[in-house]
Amino acid sequence: MPRETYSLPELPYGYGDMKPCISEEQLTIHHQKHHAAYVKGANAVFEKLEKAREENADLDMKATLKELSFHIGGHVLHSLFWQNLAPEGKGGGGEPEGELAKLINGEFGSFERFKKEFTQAAVSIEGSGWAALALDGKTGRPVVMQIEKHNLNMYPNFKILIVLDFWEHAYYIDYKNEKAKFAEAFWNIINWKEAASRLQS
Ligand code: MN
To answer: Is it the case that residue 162 has pLDDT exceeding 80?
Structure first.
């Protein structure tokens, strides 16, 4: 039976719709080159696994699974990230409402304090990574995650409500070394409705 493979999801908006926070060039390359590379990478590792199974050949499992985790992590996080964005003033920006606002205020004390912790998690990443707000389904508490690469420092099974790509490839064309400016701009294009619907599901 043919197995399903990963494919690059379409963006739910146009490449130019995130201006001025993210330029058309930056968003296009990010989606069509970087995200696409993780899709291709994950599928390639599965092919390698399948081939080795057919031939009953040995594999360097440590290296293979490390590679698979990296590419699947990259694909899954990018897919979540695109949905976490909406054009400024057209669904993007503002503040969380309802249950999500209550959850954030209950944990962090205020929206401003949450923003501060999330932003600092992003800008203090060593090397490449992501900042995320995730929900512990057991305690119902939201937790800030600082993900290294695409797959390290993650809390297993926590649901990701918000994720911000803080790899250099996410902002370098637009912001160069001024990454704090990119973190600031994110709050103008964050899609709170998407975060709220993840909380409900
Ligand atoms: Mn990226």
So the answer is: yes
